[in-house]
Amino acid sequence: MFAFNRKFGQAAFAVVGAAMLVMSGTTNASAAARNGVCDSGEFCYYWGANNTGSISDFTTSVPDYGTTQPTCYDFKGPGTGQGQCIKNNARSVWNRTSGIVRVYYNSNYGGTFQPIAAGYKGNLNSTLSDNNASHKFL
């Protein structure tokens, strides 16, 4: 009976250990999202023109950025604009995803939009610069 309990205990320990590794991996992976660094696989807004100022990074579509703190999506990275809501405050972008991302003038993916090609790094067009309210990964 002692051997059975010991084997059971070792198996249970292995399962718990494996679960902890999976959970810690998930936590680390999600910690990279919305950290103010434009990582590979993310779509990023910059507060200033020519990819300057604070960064706001995304891995998913967002239908409404919100307009006031503390509930809005804000610029996370260091630099000018840090802490400000991104709605109607972004001037440039970097699409580090493998697909097109549309930036919309209105919330809920409405109104005029600009398709941002994979790899594009530059300014938003004159209609959407400082007039952005949502974005959608295609």
The major beta sheet can be summarized as: 4 strands, antiparallel
Number of helical segments with 4 or more residues: 1
Instruction: Please write the string of helix (H) and strand (E) elements.
Output: HEEEEEEE
Task: Please tell me what the overall shape is.
Answer: globular
Q: Report how far apart the termini are.
A: 59 Å
Helix content: 10-25%
Strand order of the largest sheet: 2-1-3-6
Strand content: 25-35%
Q: CATH first level of the largest domain: which class?
A: Mainly Beta
Describe this entry's structure for a reader:
- With 138 residues, this protein is an alpha+beta fold.
- The protein has two domains: 1-31; 43-137, Gamma-B Crystallin, domain 1, CATH 2.60.20.10.
- Helices cover 22% and strands 27% of the residues.
- The chain is built from one helix and seven strands, in the order αβββββββ.
- It has one helix at 2-31, and strands spanning 43-48, 52-58, 92-95, 101-106, 110-116, 121-123, 134-137.
- The strands form two sheets. The protein has a four-stranded antiparallel β-sheet with strand order 2-1-3-6, with no helix packed on it. Strands 5-4-7 form a three-stranded antiparallel β-sheet, with no helix packed on it.
- It is globular.
- The N and C termini lie far apart (59 Å).
Compact overview of the structure:
With 138 residues, the protein is α+β, with helices and mostly antiparallel strands.
Write out key terms for the chains shown:
four-stranded antiparallel sheet; 138 residues; 27% strand; single chain; alpha+beta; 2 domains; three-stranded antiparallel sheet
